[in-house]
């Protein structure tokens, strides 16, 4: 029997997941939920052009749909923050359905709210289902890949991981949260009033890496500064004149007793190549041996997040009950055969 | 209680594992076995300079030592080939001890001998223990890393993975099996008579990747050719004049109905930088998206194998019973805290 999925949230990410699933074998979308009034009542064929799902009608009644639809897993793509997604997650778990969310804070929610995290773990266990937060970052580039690379090390002293990307494909919301096009003064005001957030994920990636590797961290310090452009940069959603802000250089330090053990940098700007900056993912482990990994250009953010969420479905369905992170499950990977066969494989292997 | 390890085989790899373990917490070597008459009766302090283990006396009576020593896991580093290690593995499993081996063929033994593989799986299950084959390659660079990278892909069409290394640190045995210093004619004679083997691992890495990703392969074709040197190359164990063989370019193709889906290349030679060849690990996934990863210089072979074998101990001890591969266990990673705490973590998480 095919894996049954409920899509919850049909923004850019949720829509992408639905399109990806439509191309895959042994997996089907059985229901779709979105809060927008324009989508309500239309089919996935009408809204996303997925012919296969002409009979999946988009609904806005979250509770009824979750409760009354038989499904193996709910893909939740509605928000970045733990407290925003928590009520939805609670309901999904209590309806005895596994849940994968791309809410960034859910990649490792313990640093955000230990109490809610413990509660989610308890509810998942009581209902014998599994909960995972994943995505490209947090969830993959600055944590999973760092963790896996370290397997070839006898000793790890320090870690530096950098992700340099290009915000050009993104729309106005992202431009605003990264301060693109602002003056330096406006950027700092935006930091102050919370409208500029930079990257959401360091509080997840750093503890994930530290926990997996057994590195003790007692402080995570974050630094956000404007990337002042020397050149004129223009995208469909942003214009940056020389001297104005091209994006946000967000850096985080995982420290122990004042010493920096893990450094993560994620400068996000439009068109970095105009100033000869190569986009890419860079991981350096200082240890024995020293290892330097790069992915050039960088793992694409949107596609990567979509792929991670969908590709982790078999591991999540097969896992033991509870709140999991990427370090608790078997290797993530792309899937070209049937999702059902993947679940069957993990079950036969006794993999949890 | 600390994890108890029996070291079996104290060549370069086994000795390296013993030294690594001596530096780690929550893990101890409780016995050491080696067939060499020179080492017999001496302590790990005498032979390897590990002061901590002055009371671990090296023995050559494998069966007695395995049977009469209480231990959680045996690290087996004695040979590359399934049929050579199988009798040892069988005995270890029947003594109800987990086993990690760096025998290359054990990274995925099914392509070598399905019957023995099934038997090992059965014996492991009957005795409630776990068996894993790992190492830097096969086990990590050309399989685990490829598998993990693919998680960011919606679709995978073809894969190419290349590992370019420098054989200079190795001794005469490796020089001979790679044909270093021979004439082209002697190289082909060596291939013919089996004295030149190239890389052992493609028959493991290709099926591991294919299986994880659900890519069907019906043939693995291997090609070995001499790397003819244009320059004079000299190492402590080899001399290569221009026109002679600097090493073996070993290539393997994973095919389906004649079409190559997975290509793996591992040219092994001494001092490739003399001809401006950069050593490194290179993975390219052609799909959606296309991803290009490199590790420069390459993940070191010896240290990497030592690290992988030791770092996988917690996952193996916590795993469900049976013959496992790297795609069945939680993320591999380096360990800076206590090995015992790592096992405790996996047990608490219900990870198998």
UniProtKB/TrEMBL annotation, chains A, B:
It comes from the Bacteria. GO terms for biological process: lysine biosynthetic process via diaminopimelate. Residues 140-344 form the 2,4-diaminopentanoate dehydrogenase C-terminal domain. Residues 3-100 form the Dihydrodipicolinate reductase N-terminal domain. SUPFAM superfamilies: NAD(P)-binding Rossmann-fold domains. GO terms for molecular function: 4-hydroxy-tetrahydrodipicolinate reductase. InterPro entries: DAP_DH_C, DapB_N, NAD(P)-bd_dom_sf. This is 4-hydroxy-tetrahydrodipicolinate reductase. It comes from Clostridium amylolyticum.
